[in-house]
């Protein structure tokens, strides 16, 4: 494992950051912008991950996921709602039959500092409660100390815990927590390790540290999934999370997906935004295109 991961090409940090910056300057026409806004809305994992979460807050979040703009039924639904494991059953009931998935963070999110048995129990309980997707965090301490096989085996074990005997298995999103991996080389290695271990998605971050999704680290992960599939692997999704708040940001990421991984990744099946505040800005920009004027922030529901 070490030989393979350290044999991956090194990352040209200057070139990576320059490419990410250049892609974000691309402009798109009004008709394409309208399509991009709807596509971005359909890719959102609408998220609440606070210690003060309540069943009422989760139900409110689910209502917004189903009807992002109550005054406009043409607005697409989001891809998923993302909650803590103890709120999965509440979310499942609220979105039942809608096509909106229920995602749950597990494995002692966000630190991941718990015995594997506890992390697996966390996962199994979320799946049993009805989670369609599990967002797990890797053991960054193990990864940074070079114990790659431990991280690989942890991911494999959580993947097995996503199995459901009476229905489709939950999809597994593996959170790398890029802000704690220190180098672009480490992000590339962690991406490949997660994909080899069975991840269905690789995700930038928990949203709970100082550095979360950035254009450069997301670009690097898109390159990894592209190269993994070209090498004979499966198609793997990418989910940037944390710090993506504006329509301009979201469209920049969509351009990056199209130009790097290809248009086949421009679907909620293979690309998601982990966000809470992004949806409101997308809705305001969508209304601006339709009416010619900006609405106020109080014209959209508060998350």
Automatic annotation (TrEMBL):
Keywords, ordered alphabetically: Lyase, Schiff base
SUPFAM superfamilies associated with the record: Aldolase
Pathway involvement of the protein, from the record: Carbohydrate degradation; 2-deoxy-D-ribose 1-phosphate degradation; D-glyceraldehyde 3-phosphate and acetaldehyde from 2-deoxy-alpha-D-ribose 1-phosphate: step 2/2
Pfam families linked: DeoC (PF01791)
GO molecular function: deoxyribose-phosphate aldolase activity
GO cellular component: cytoplasm
Top EC class of this enzyme: lyase
Classification via Gene3D superfamilies: Aldolase class I (3.20.20.70)
A biological process from GO: deoxyribonucleotide catabolic process
Top-level taxon of origin: Bacteria
Tagged with keyword Chaperone: no
Catalytic activity: 2-deoxy-D-ribose 5-phosphate = D-glyceraldehyde 3-phosphate + acetaldehyde
Lyase recorded as keyword: yes
CDD domains: DeoC
PANTHER family reported for this sequence: DEOXYRIBOSE-PHOSPHATE ALDOLASE
Similarity section: Belongs to the DeoC/FbaB aldolase family. DeoC type 2 subfamily.
Protein name as catalogued: Deoxyribose-phosphate aldolase
Organism for this UniProt entry: Streptomyces calidiresistens
């Amino acid at each position: 494992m070490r030989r393979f991961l350290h044999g991956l090409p090194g990352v040209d940090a200057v070139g990576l950051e320059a490419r990410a910056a250049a892609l974000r300057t691309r402009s798109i026409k009004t008709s394409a912008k309208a399509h991009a806004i709807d596509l971005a809305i359909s890719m959102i994992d609408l998220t609440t991950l606070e210690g003060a979460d309540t069943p009422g807050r989760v139900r409110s979040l689910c209502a917004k996921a189903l009807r992002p703009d109550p005054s406009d039924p043409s607005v697409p639904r989001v891809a998923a709602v993302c909650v803590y494991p103890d709120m999965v059953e509440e979310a499942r009931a609220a979105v039942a039959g809608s096509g909106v998935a229920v995602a749950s963070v597990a494995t002692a999110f966000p630190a991941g500092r718990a015995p594997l048995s506890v992390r697996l129990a966390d996962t199994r309980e979320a799946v049993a409660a009805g989670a369609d997707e599990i967002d797990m965090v890797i053991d960054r301490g193990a990864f940074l100390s070079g114990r790659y096989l431990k991280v690989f085996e942890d991911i494999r074990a959580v993947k097995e815990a996503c199995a459901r005997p009476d229905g489709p298995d939950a999809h597994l999103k593996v959170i790398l927590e890029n802000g704690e991996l220190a180098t672009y080389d480490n992000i590339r290695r962690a991406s490949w390790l997660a994909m080899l271990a069975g991840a269905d998605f690789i995700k930038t971050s928990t949203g709970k540290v100082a550095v979360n999704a950035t254009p450069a680290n997301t670009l690097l992960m898109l390159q990894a999934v592209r190269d993994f599939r070209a090498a004979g692997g499966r198609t793997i999704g990418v989910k940037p999370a944390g710090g993506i708040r504006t329509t301009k940001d979201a469209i920049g990421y969509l351009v990056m997906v199209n130009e790097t991984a290809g248009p086949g990744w421009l679907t909620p099946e293979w690309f998601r935004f982990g966000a809470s505040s992004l949806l409101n800005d997308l809705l305001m920009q969508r209304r601006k295109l339709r009416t010619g004027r900006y609405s106020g922030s109080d014209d959209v529901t508060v998350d």
